[in-house]
């Protein structure tokens, strides 16, 4: 189901109940770019520590926008022995809530945009119809502002912007606005004596509206309800209404409800993430570290500096995660699956010894056909990620005694994969462990090597040919980490110039 | 006429001849954002020097993308006594030329994007169908690379990436690729003895293709033409063709022509700017400083640090500019035109004492109706900018003896407005003078004032009420420039705490 600003409000209930009833959820995000900094080989060096990798992704990837969020809910139907799925494809965009709310800037990377364009991505759905959102701080701030404004208006103090030395007395009206304000006072005085109920003042500037509020608060403390209204052309003007105390309260109540609804609308897509989070359901993703980081960054809070703090925040937002790329790269799948990209994985788990799960799209939802690939649409990618998880989980069930054909998301056999996120292109640390310390492999067989910038990987292979197999992790044009296959091979003094080298202290090294 | 990647090549001739035959051109740009830095009041402080303003715009506005470029050509038809116009609306996007070419990143500002969305802007035309472009450095670099590669291939040295110590001998083929390469050698040997003309190798990785080129260059130095070809699915494979010397030359010539055309395609939209530049025609814009800066930045060269250098580059690219916002803000128009925004100006110059010019849209072009405003489409904005220029220029003609109803773009009466760009919100320097030193107004009646952050403009008015009229230029929450109406009013020692103050040295102050 495609969800944009237009149908979001009507769809939210459907989303929440799909999440509530699901056995597990699959998610995927599409971004306006991947890396704003160094080239990919430096961004994802093969010998990064988890701390370094987190710091690099945080620094170089978070200024992009997650603008399409795919969610596919999977609910197992015992009777039919099949999964009922509900796929959603949300377009999100940080449309500013009002003139004073933050005006977010984000980066687009031409190659990413061009790639999505080649996949038929509809950018108008993002930029024209994207669902707005607020993170938790912004939501709290907005609710407090609204509360404060209400209290002050009730006390007749006016809005916060009026608190300045000069507002203790009557409004200071600059010379050029005096005529204008005097005309307003005349009109309001006439309203109080004539038979009209309502007075619509002419559209005017924000500054003039301030002056009007200040003046009316000062001069007429009772019997009036003053409110800013917008014309169809988005021009703002002030409406003054004669009211008794009861009507005044009723109108204030209405205004409060309207404001409350506007605030909920502004929180927007974040409410979907809140619902996922509150459900505590297993959330499955493929190579999902960036998806998780972006989701927290946009819809919860700025990412913490420290990796340990990030792990804690993540466990609050997503108490149970599973990464299908990690699963596919781990025993017993590692030997069977040669290419763990999502598209290839999805093809492989259709073949023996895997079995394609039986799935049925719930009524009213768009049904995907995996034969007609719609890769890189977030909803579709979430859907096939869920399929991969089911096939691999069920395969694990075949080792049980007695074998089980259906493995649930709560089963012990998938537990070893919980809360471990795949770390791309790190040689010796396969995953980020969200619920404990990370692996700390020995790295004393790793050399830091510098060389002329014309050198290629093959030159390094030649140089180290005496040492058998090596792994090269490029740092930049003139340096790399070279991992020898055995520790005892590293003997200082063995190499001669011009090949400078040093023992590496990867774990403490700042890249 | 809408111009995208799809019809650009077919349209370029039409564009060039429209520019060549025109009496003057009008331009306008739409951007992905305006300011990446401080708020607008700090970005455009009323007492900026031209150097400061240029530095701020360069720093805070150039990371946005100019993604729609409007051009409207105006040619006066003496017989019909009317202008024939040709409006173009170009969508541009920095689609990377190939895998090694720069992958541009640009910033989007939510409020700007949301504003354009509300005006019906079609983002897919930018991101999916935008015309690519290269600046001059990128173009030169690409042409040099292509030249170099050709020379090396002709000399049998292979592509530049092969120059490494190991390429002096036979290719170093890593163990895991040896089988693959041996199979290729076998196939090529078979080709040389059998009756086939062409051998299509299977698609393979870039690294494997390198190995193949290296190996074939080394083993078979004559009689073969080797080329990388792309399948419909964008998979790359190597084609080996048996050739004699003559055919080899012919194929190389074809390849060169193909490369040349690809290069021209990559230069893309910049060719339109080159044509405008080369024509030397008067280019009219409304409040055009940012348009000019973006145009030079994207399609010519990174903006120079120094304002004087910027002026020189600008005069090379656009030898004759005219800003209608400056014109409308200057005598004799200043007194007649209260609001110089483009939309309002366009309405005002339709009324007496102005006359709407007679215009006719050239055949085959979309004709705009100014009654149905299409503001913020760059082509439309360029069109009405041109109309405003004509009306104002013709009004100046009414003062000549004898009065002239038609004033050409070359007339003496518009010359005073040439090469002066409007400076937004600077109190005492109306324009940037591209062909000489800028105005240096006295600023010794200006105070730098600091105050508690609760203060509003009205508090400053009160504080300085004894000094008559003042002008306030906010710097941030707690400081501003205050301009008194007369110099001799500034007397140090007159103010007491808590209002700290100091004489300002605006011209030397770094903001």
Automatic annotation (TrEMBL), chains A, B:
GO MF: metal ion binding; poly(A)-specific ribonuclease activity; RNA binding
Reactions the enzyme catalyzes: Exonucleolytic cleavage of poly(A) to 5'-AMP
Lineage: Eukaryota, Metazoa, Chordata, Craniata, Vertebrata
Any matching Pfam family: CAF1
Official protein name in the record: Poly(A)-specific ribonuclease PARN
Class of enzymatic activity (EC top level): hydrolase
Occurrences of domain R3H (ranges): 178-244
Chain spans, region Disordered: 142-174
């Amino acid at each position: 189901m495609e969800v944009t600003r237009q149908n979001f409000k009507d769809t939210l209930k459907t989303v929440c109940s799909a999440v509530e009833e699901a056995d597990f959820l699959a998610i995927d995000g599409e971004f306006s770019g991947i890396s704003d900094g160094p080239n990919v080989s430096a961004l994802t060096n093969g010998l990064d520590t988890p701390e370094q990798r987190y710091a690099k992704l945080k620094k170089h990837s978070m200024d992009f926008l997650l603008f399409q969020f795919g969610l596919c809910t999977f609910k197992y139907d015992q009777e039919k022995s099949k999964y009922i799925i509900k796929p959603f494809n949300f377009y999100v965009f940080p449309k500013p809530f009002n003139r004073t709310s933050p005006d977010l800037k984000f980066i687009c990377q031409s190659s990413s945009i061009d790639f999505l364009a080649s996949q038929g991505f509809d950018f108008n759905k993002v930029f024209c119809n994207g669902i707005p959102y607020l993170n938790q701080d912004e939501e709290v701030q907005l609710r407090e502002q609204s509360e404060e404004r209400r209290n002050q208006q009730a006390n007749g103090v006016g809005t916060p912007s009026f608190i300045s030395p000069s507002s203790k007395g009557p409004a200071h009206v600059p010379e050029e606005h005096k005529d204008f304000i005097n005309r307003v006072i005349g009109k309001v005085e006439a309203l109080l004596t004539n038979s009209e109920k309502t007075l619509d003042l002419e559209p005017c500037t924000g500054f003039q509206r301030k002056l009007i509020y200040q003046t009316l608060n000062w001069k007429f403390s009772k019997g009036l309800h003053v409110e800013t209204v917008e014309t169809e052309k988005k021009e703002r003007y002030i409406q003054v209404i004669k009211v008794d105390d009861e009507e005044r309260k009723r109108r204030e109540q209405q205004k409060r409800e309207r404001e409350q609804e506007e605030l909920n609308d502004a929180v927007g897509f974040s409410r979907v993430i809140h619902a996922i989070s509150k459900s505590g359901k297993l959330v499955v993703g493929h190579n999902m570290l960036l998806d998780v980081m972006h989701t927290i960054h946009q819809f919860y809070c700025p990412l913490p500096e420290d990796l340990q703090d990030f792990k804690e925040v993540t466990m609050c937002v997503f108490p149970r995660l599973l990464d299908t790329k990690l699963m596919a790269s781990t025993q017993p799948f590692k030997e069977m699956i040669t290419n763990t990209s999502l598209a290839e994985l999805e093809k492989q788990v259709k073949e023996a010894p895997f079995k394609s799960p039986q799935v049925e799209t719930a009524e009213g939802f768009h049904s995907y056909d995996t034969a007609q690939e719609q890769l890189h649409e977030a909803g579709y990618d979430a859907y096939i990620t869920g399929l991969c998880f089911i096939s691999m989980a069920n395969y694990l069930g075949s080792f049980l005694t007695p074998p089980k054909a259906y493995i649930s998301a709560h089963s012990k056999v998938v537990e070893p994969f919980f809360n471990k996120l795949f770390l791309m292109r790190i040689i010796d640390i396969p995953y980020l462990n969200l619920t404990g310390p990370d692996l700390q492999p020995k790295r004393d067989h790793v050399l830091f090597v510098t060389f002329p910038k014309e050198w290629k990987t093959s030159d390094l292979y030649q140089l180290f040919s005496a040492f058998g197999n090596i792994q090269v992790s490029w740092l930049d044009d003139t340096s790399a980490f070279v991992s020898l296959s055995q520790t005892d091979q590293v003997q200082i003094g063995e190499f001669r110039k011009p090949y400078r080298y040093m023992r590496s202290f990867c774990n403490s090294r700042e890249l």
